[in-house]
């Protein structure tokens, strides 16, 4: 089957959403390699494909409103009374640098502590997201916060932690360490939208910008006050 007929068949088949996402991200990755000399790991490419599939399904579901409305999103406590941890991972630059970071706040938004870090020899955003959750939970435990809500904007990462563990996953040891910490504390790990996770995103980019594998911030950076 030639490419044209194959695309027409896949676009109308039962796996149309998956096929569309795979073709799009394969094409984009090809352009990144040819034009920017950037190569992604298979794990990072797979995560992007899965996230796109979820977005396509939501956008074209029967319940999706035909009328679009603007949504103004900012950080909030989601009615949680206690300590809130926002985390994020980041991959950017050429060559790609992977960082992670997060911020601890109380339910009124008061800064309690933050952290940022760099992962040498990695270009995998999923690893950055998992590192952010792991080190965020460790920092919260060290500070005596046994009960908190943890938010990440990586749905793939949240599912890996909340679902039964995949025995042969490339990061199974790190995922298991996170699960064990969750069992020892009263922590809720949930998904948040990127628009409400700007501070953690900045800390992750900060981590990717320096060669420090883990740095704790006891005072808020001035730039965080604008988010």
Characterization of this structure:
The chain has 227 residues and is α/β, with parallel strands linked by helices. It has helices at 3-12, 16-36, 42-59, 125-142, 155-162, 172-184, 198-209, and strands at 83-92, 97-105, 111-119, 147-152, 186-191, 215-217. The chain folds into 2 domains: 3-59, no CATH class; 83-220, Nucleotidyltransferase, domain 5 (2-Layer Sandwich), CATH 3.30.420. It has a 6-stranded mixed β-sheet. The protein is globular, with a radius of gyration of 19 Å.
Outline the secondary-structure elements:
Blueprint: H1 3-12, H2 16-36, H3 42-59, E1 83-92, E2 97-105, E3 111-119, H4 125-142, E4 147-152, H5 155-162, H6 172-184, E5 186-191, H7 198-209, E6 215-217
Parallel strand pairs: 1-4, 4-5
Antiparallel strand pairs: 1-2, 2-3, 3-6
List its salient traits.
227 residues; alpha/beta; Nucleotidyltransferase, domain 5; six-stranded mixed β-sheet; 7 helices; 44% helix
Q: How many domains make up the coordinates?
A: 2
Distance between the termini: 52 Å
Query: If you average the pLDDT, what whole number results?
Result: 86
| CATH H-level superfamily title of the largest domain | Ribonuclease H-like superfamily/Ribonuclease H
CATH topology (level 3) name of the largest domain:
Nucleotidyltransferase, domain 5
| Architecture per CATH nomenclature, i.e. the level-2 architecture of the largest domain | 2-Layer Sandwich
Structural class: alpha/beta
Topology, number of strands: 6
Radius of gyration computed on alpha carbons: 19 Å
- Reading the helices and strands in chain order gives HHHEEEHEHHEHE
The percent range for strand residues is: 15-25%
The parts where pLDDT drops under 50 for at least 5 residues are none
